[in-house]
Design a protein that fits this description.
The protein is mainly α and 93 residues long. The chain has five helices and two strands; from the N terminus they run αβααααβ. It has a two-stranded antiparallel ribbon with strand order 1-2. It is elongated and about 70 Å long.
């Protein structure tokens, strides 16, 4: 079992990179909303016919390329934040 004091030493060297995770999640929802079948046909097909013509309405794929993009960006942000267990000595020492 890990020592509880060791958990308090975990930190990020560049924590501002973690803000990128929120940006990746926001991008995920923007891409999902923009590429829906309803959005693509909205200006072309009459509004009262559109619900009857869209196949698989409301059911998306369980895994899409935008999911992989979001996961990759989130993992990259965590890696760029620099997780570490020990502090680096100051450069002037």
């Amino acid at each position: 079992m890990p020592d509880i004091a060791m958990l308090f030493e975990f930190h990020f060297l560049r924590p501002w990179w973690l803000v990128g995770i929120a940006a990746a999640v926001l991008l995920h929802f923007v891409l999902g909303r923009r590429h829906g079948a309803d959005r693509q046909w909205q200006g072309i097909v009459a509004a009262h016919l559109l619900p009857h013509l869209v196949v698989n309405r409301g059911r998306g794929h369980w895994f899409a390329p935008r999911h992989m993009l979001t996961l990759t960006l989130a993992l990259a942000c965590v890696a760029l934040a620099g997780p570490t267990w020990q502090r680096e000595p100051p450069l002037f020492v």
